[in-house]
Fold:
Amino acid sequence: MKLPIYLYGHPVLREQAKTITPEYPELKKLVEDMFETMYFSEGVGLAAPQIGRADRIVVIDATPVAEAFPECDGWKHALINPEVEVLEGDEIARSEGCLSLPGLSEDVKRVEHIRLRWLDTDFQPHEQEISGFLARIVQHECDHLKGMVYIDHVSGIRKQLIRSKLSNIVNGKIRCDYPVKFAPRKKK
Structure:
């Protein structure tokens, strides 16, 4: 089932996601729906807060960008309670976009080498060192679990320059090719 993507300005995107347990209801169905939503929206990653759930769940299928970034080839996982450990290296600036911020992209500095620990949907543990663009995708999605979006990493000056675009998203003055959920209107 395709789920609506919650857009910038919605409070759920600023919540700290909760750790989930094996008793989480219908986890595999939710993960399946998240993958379907991500594919329909033409994304390579989706975090649970982006569908309105402040839970530590991420889905990633980086295969669509594998031609440009070979480390992404075949990397498809559901990450339950993921933890990122920065390993080494300088921060590299690359352009990022986000399904919750349609029509925008900004250069974001991130490290290119991480260790990722996560559980699969059967709550089996996994650990992997990840580099390059794949590390960026993982960090971007895991930021959502901390109540962050990628523009939190850009300079104040850059935020001022895109303020009207952000305001248009918050105020519902945009069009998307996928189902969305706008921030609730403030009562006057």
Observations:
- The chain has a mean pLDDT of 96.
- The first strand starts at residue 5 and ends at 6.
- The two ends are 35 Å apart (CA to CA).
- The helical segments are 27-40, 132-145, 156-161, 163-170.
